[in-house]
Amino acid sequence: MRLFEMAKTCDLLKIAEKHFHLRKRGNGYAANHCPHCPPGKNDAMSIYPSDGIWRWHCFRCARGGTVIDFAAAIWGTSEREAAMRLVKSTDPGKADPSHGAPKKVKASQDVMKNAITQLLNNGHTNLKECFEYLEQRGISKKTANEAIRRGMLRFLPANPFQANKFLLKNLGIKTLREAGFLKPEARWPGIAFRPLVFFFPGYTAAEFRLARQPKEGEPKAIRYGYIERPWWWSAGDSISTIYIVEGVIDLLSMVEIGLEEGEAVMGIPGVTSWKQEWFSAAKSAHPDARFVIALDADNAGRQATHSIRQFLESMEVAVSEKTPECGTDWNDFLVLSRAA
């Protein structure tokens, strides 16, 4: 047992970067395949820190684990042989700091959580421009106000100049830099241009969104922090049905369409960003609930639906699929259905 515990602390990224083209994604990395899959067009594998160690998960084949499973697959050995080789060839207590060792990530999480909590406590709860934009997306002021009451939504000033002043006043330049909101070479934080702030449960992460249509090449949202849990909205305490959608706008769209008593919506932050433990935790909290995978009706959504369904079925829970009757996602469906 001691062998495996020591091996788990070795730097997974040192091995991964030799075999894969990695791209930074939040606090982790992504690649278009895993040790068991051929390369593809879209990101399939995620490498991320969790509970002080690096883990990996492939959304295409649903495999995953720690550096031990990963190394065993790369080297073509048993997990025990891989663990022995890891411990002998690497100082298990020292991950490469250029990769961001898990302990460093944890320290940055504390800074991020403090910054996000300040935004929650001081962010606006009544901003005309933001309410108007959400209403254009089919999300009523009533639903937006309920999201505010639940601690899921706040607003920055819609004017970037005022938003920058707000951020400097409430967070300070030191916190803005330490949290990564203000890059060393930047004069303004990018979030000053994105007044919609959606908080993840636990306030370890937040998504900042434009209150308008993005210009060509402009990201509509910027996400910061480490996502411990996905967005969640329930109608009642005794949950019998859990819908799985992509993103917070689709979650609010499902709420707007109408949730019945006993239904809940889980909003995953992206089709390549879900974690198995989120579904395991939902099953543990609601053991009799059935899951309905309601992701976007595009290729990425269909691939993720297949992987998530495989995992849910391995947990022996009732699972079905649902796609919007019109449009690609549930916000499309909401807007189009109201325009009809």
Shape: globular
Q: What share of residues is helical? A: 40-55%
CATH superfamily of the largest domain: DNA primase, catalytic core, N-terminal domain
Count of distinct strands? 14
**Please, how many helices?**
13
Averaged pLDDT: 87
Q: Find the structural class using helix and strand composition.
A: alpha+beta
The proportion of strand residues reads 15-25%
Rg over CA atoms: 21 Å
Taking the sheet with the most strands, its summary is: 5 strands, antiparallel
Description:
The protein is α+β, with helices and mostly antiparallel strands. The chain has helices at 2-8, 12-19, 67-75, 79-89, 102-122, 128-136, 141-149, 160-170, 172-178, 248-257, 276-285, 299-314, 330-339; strands spanning 23-25, 28-31, 45-50, 53-58, 64-66, 153-155, 196-199, 205-209, 221-225, 231-234, 241-246, 263-268, 290-293, 319-321. Strands 1-2-3-4-5 form a five-stranded antiparallel β-sheet. Strands 10-12-11-13-14 form a five-stranded mixed β-sheet, sandwiched between helices.
